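During the no-cost extension, the postdoctoral fellow (Dr. R.K.) reprocessed legacy sequence entries with the updated structure-token encoder. One reprocessed record is reproduced below for audit purposes.
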Amino acid sequence: MLQPKAAVDLTSEQIGVAKPIALLLDLSGNKEIALEWATETMTGCVIRPINKADLKRGSKLEALRQIRALQPRLLAIFTSGLSMQSTRGALIMFGVLAGARLILLADGKGRSIVRTRIGALFLEAPRWLFELIIGYLVVIPVSWIIVTVLERSVGFRDIVRAGKTRPSPKASRSALYIRATLSGLAEGGMPTHIEGFQSGVIALGHTLKRLELGEPSSSLPEAARGVFANAGMCVIRPSASVGATKALFEMWNNLVFTVKSLRLLDDAAKCGFIYQRYSRFNFTGVMLALVTGLPLALEFNGSEVWVSKHWDPIGQLWLLKCFERANLRNADLVFVVSEVARRELIAEGVANAQRVIVNPNGVDVEVFHPDCGGDSVREKLGVHDRVVVGFIGTFGPWHGAPVLAKAARLVSSQARCHFLFVGDGDERAIAEDIIGQADTCTFTGRVSHERVPAYLDACDILVSPHVPLAGGSEFFGSPTKLFEYMAMARPVIASRLGQIADVIVDGENGILVEPGDPMSLAHAIERLALSREPRAVLGTKARRTVQAEYTWLRNASRVVDAVETVYGQLEKRENR
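Re-encoded structure tokens follow.
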């Protein structure tokens, strides 16, 4: 049961001790907001944050032992959105095992779930077990059967197409955009890429219908929350009916989202092609392409199987592999962000070379440009007389924020640098620990994407300290931050990795350093900090590079041109 925030204000009398310890587990990725909420809500408590990264990577039993030693009376879990949060029952049971008498789940929208220890044992435990049973006896088998059929349906799709009326030229210049990612859309480059691609498609004169899984915005009319409306947008709410594990939650919502999407076939069939951002345990685009006969363009930003093995464990890898193969084999076009990613897909045999197209990320140069609010940010930070060295990111394990933190400690005081870390995430705490109490660094926490250009404009040097991938894998990414940095006409110092080393020409439009080497990074920062003229030259050339090659308009053009080629191939087959 969801309750309003006012109903969960806690006092020491409610918990029964004078100064109880309240543990705070932030799952929203916004440390400042989570702490602000906890301070307002848990009055009379000593708040002790828990590092999510420690729970994810370490032993769960050891984590429980350490938490129980604190004798917490309350465990508070703050999420970006309760309806998008999986494993709610498991989180509540974790609180019970940790010794908490009261467990509170809440989000930034004022919604909450409150359970006493007894309530958790008698309400959540049976529900959690029931969800596990339904998940393993129904959701997993049904998902496996459907995805196995889809994986082998490529030939049948051609038969379906032969019986379909080809859309008119005007209709073929419209797209159905599918995003089925179970996320609050605040993480990393995903929202940037979505907005950028969509704006590029529209700028090319095409129309776009958006089909998304998520929480409808309050700004949307009610009609847009289940059918195509509001300039072609449909938002389908996630379901929390089966969410015992993260994998079951995502598989269940794939089934719900796909079934509800099939009700929109009449509208979908009027589009010229389907474009889906690939997401874990989802086959909605494959299903819609099969029943409508429309070409499917798949945006494949990386293997979720690889991500699960190295960064974000999800479970059910055998089934996740089936989902991934079904998407890749059924897509008419697979768009990857780098040549490394293209080579890997071709080598694995899941997609042939003609169907896999490299489409790097980009930037909106009308939004990211010099003189867009940086002076006010510098004034707010009190760093007018400093050389500001900036980093922005989600502090993921590949971003290298700890490397920059180590470099910051090595940079000479003569360089008069101030280091600005913008964002939040798993490795923020590590970077903060490395920095310590130094007054030459600022961690802003997460900022809205609308404010990002001003923060970048406040910097004199921008750093992209990416590190090699886990397991020895070749770096396959196309960091959106790199293109945003360059658009600001600021000198960029970046790691010599993958596509980064292709975009940055060392000494021409940026500086390349060896990845994971704090000393090399510190020396590069010092050189630029002590000489203004090279900074201006490198920054000017960097902006020219992205203006010419790496805009979202160019990104969208590659997709549209490739789809037109697919249509030409289909027409040739029909005329034989």
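Confidence is low (pLDDT under 50) at residues 1-17, 218-225. The two ends are 61 Å apart (CA to CA). The remaining legacy entries will be reprocessed before the final report is submitted.
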